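Sample entry copied in:
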Amino acid sequence: MNKDQLLGNMKIVVARLEENLATLMHDKAHLRHAAQLQQAGKVQRTMGEARQLIKRSLKQHMSA
């Protein structure tokens, strides 16, 4: 797991917590912010996965 995957997962967790809090407080602004943060986390996690896949692929290509 690389840095982008870790940070992406952390953003998703924080966003879910914020979403639950916003739901309890009936705060639409915080709900929107939580949704945006969750999407940003998913993008960052996906970028980390892609980076890891490329790195692994290059390593296999170089050793072959």
The chain has a mean pLDDT of 96. The radius of gyration is 16 Å.
